[in-house]
Amino acid sequence: MKIHEIDLLRSQLAESLAELSEDSAPEDGGLERATLAGLLARLVPDDPLVAQAEASLGDLVLGAIARAAEHALALVEAVDEEDDPALSWNALCAVDEACAASWLVARPALVEEAVEEATATVRAFPEPFAPHAEAASAVLRERPPRAGDPAWGLWAAVELSAVGLPLDQEGASFETRIALDLDVRLPRLVQEGLRLAAHAGGLPDEAPWICLARGEGWELAHTVDPSGRDILLLTGAGESSLRCDGEPRTWTEDPEGRICAATPGAWEIAVDGKVRRFRIEA
Amino acid sequence: MKLAPYPRVELRWRKVHKHVFNPGERWWELHGGLERWSLEWNELRVHGFFNGDEPWLLAAGSPPVREIVERWHELWLEAAGRAVDEAIARRQVEPQAGGKRSYVGAKGVTVILAGRDRLVTCYKVVDEAIHSDRASERTAVRRQQRRASL
């Protein structure tokens, strides 16, 4: 996946550089080139496109980077608890990109104040950012900002944003517990009374969703179908087999993926060559 | 793609309040131009549409404000449907957690759908230097794919 990200950054940077013409002022697209080169430099520091982008930048890009950090801070401050996580992710990326650009031009001070405020906002109101805690860990582990890059503090705050929020009874996500092959007991998602409430429009629009496992291009989840029935849903995977209490079960093709009624019992589902075990309570 | 509006009118107003009249998202680029958008923004401001947490909801119900907000909601919904079509044509669709998918269309218009066609939200990602529409689209695609890759 890291290779895919490198390819994307290279292709976007090449496209942005190609848009430069003889008539272009150095500030035209300078912020975008600094951002893309800064992100690419975290992954491939000696990529020739990074040097090419650096050479194309003029002094005016410094002001653009500072303004981008202010704009990014405004995005972070505008995040509400009821927003879809895509919005908080967009805001975090905007801050991170301003950091990457500032690091590329060796002027992290340009963004420091805005990034510190954004980080403080994440610490003070962690809930909307908690869905990105695992992604923040992955950023720090696999694509770490370099020493002195203010993005470190931001991602560290996001990583901690899920601490203290309700997960399962043991304090870990179901997905993590299944991956570790620990004992996992899933609740039934929809009781009869709630089903009636759903029919009366008294439940939120979004169906309950527990991610059980995921990998490249696939996800296994416990959710409900439009009639309110508990189901297991597998989207985007290849070979998979499943058993409940030792008895083979079969997937049914559905527009959303493959589904199977999530009846109570001990489940074993093989996806991507690995067996995931969990129990659904009666 | 034709998307169904939210059943609750408050939610429709909330999206217009949060996205369409957020200057940072530059929705005038999609319809009517900056001058008209500014006039309407000012009309809404005069009627208290940007006041605090809840007063704006009361303001949204008053006739002159409601007319502007409902019309912009229609435009916002059309833009979302168009962005979904563009995203499918450009293969800029990524699965997200919770069974949702994100779609990036032209000018950075980003749509989140649950299932095939249930609208969760739509917002516009802009290149912070307001360099070009294409740069905004690249920015939206980069953030979308980065999220999917982690």
What does this structure look like?
The complex is a heterodimer of chains A (282) and B (150). By secondary structure, chain A is an alpha+beta fold. Chain A folds into 2 domains: 2-162, no CATH class; 174-280, no CATH class. Chain A has helices at residues 2-18, 30-43, 48-56, 61-77, 85-104, 109-124, 133-142, 151-159, 174-179, 192-199; strands spanning 185-186, 209-215, 218-224, 230-235, 240-244, 247-249, 252-254, 257-261, 265-271, 274-280. In chain A, the strands form 2 sheets. A 5-stranded mixed sheet of chain A has the order 1-10-9-5-6. In chain A, helix 6 runs parallel beside helix 8 (151-159). Chain B has one domain. Chain B is 51% helix and 15% strand. Chain B has 5 helices and 4 strands. Chain B has a 4-stranded antiparallel sheet, sandwiched between helices. In chain B, a hairpin with a 4-residue loop joins strand 2 and strand 3 (109-114). Chains A and B meet through helix 1, helix 2, helix 4, helix 5 and helix 7 of A and strand 3, strand 4 and helix 5 of B.
Highlighted features:
heterodimer, A: 282 residues, alpha+beta, five-stranded antiparallel sheet, 10 helices, 10 strands, B: alpha+beta, 5 helices, 4 strands, globular
* Total discrete domains of chain B: 1
- The helix content of chain A, as a percent range, equals 40-55%
Class derived from helix and strand content of chain A: alpha+beta
**Count of helix runs of chain A:** 10
Shape of chain A: elongated
Strand arrangement in the largest pleated sheet of chain B: 1-2-3-4
| Order of strands across the main sheet of chain A | 1-10-9-5-6
End-to-end distance of chain B: 29 Å
Strand elements of chain A, count: 10
Our count of domains of chain A comes out at 2
**What percent of the residues of chain B sit in helical stretches (DSSP H or I)?**
40-55%
What integer value in Å does the Rg of chain A equal?
23 Å
User: How confident overall, as mean pLDDT of chain B?
Assistant: 89
Order of helices and strands of chain B: HHHHEEEEH
Query: The biggest beta sheet of chain B, please?
Result: 4 strands, antiparallel
The low-confidence parts of chain B are none
Number of strands of chain B: 4
Secondary-structure element pattern of chain A, one letter each: HHHHHHHHHEHEEEEEEEEE
